[in-house]
Amino acid sequence: MPRTTGTYRVTRVGNEEVRAFVPMPLPPADPPLQFDDALLELHAEAVAAVGKLGVAGAMVTSPQWFIYGFVRKEAVVSSEIEGTQATLQDVVTYEATKQAERPDDVREVCNYVDALTYARAEFAKPKGLPLSTRLLCETHKRLMRGVRGAEKQPGEIRRSQNWIDGTRPGNARFVPPPPEDVPALMAQLDTWMHSDDSLPPLVKAGLAHVQFETIHPFLDGDGRIGRLLVTLLLEHWGLLKTPMLYLSLAFKRRQQEYYARLSGVRTEGEWEAWTTFYLECVREAADDGVRAAEAIFTLIGKDRARLIKHGTVTVPAVRLLDLLPSNPVVTLSLAVELLQVSKPTAIKAIESLEKTGILKETTGKRRDRVYAYQKYLNVLTGG
Question: Which of 204, 208, 276, 369 has the fewest other C-beta atoms within 10 Å?
Answer without folding.
Answer: 369
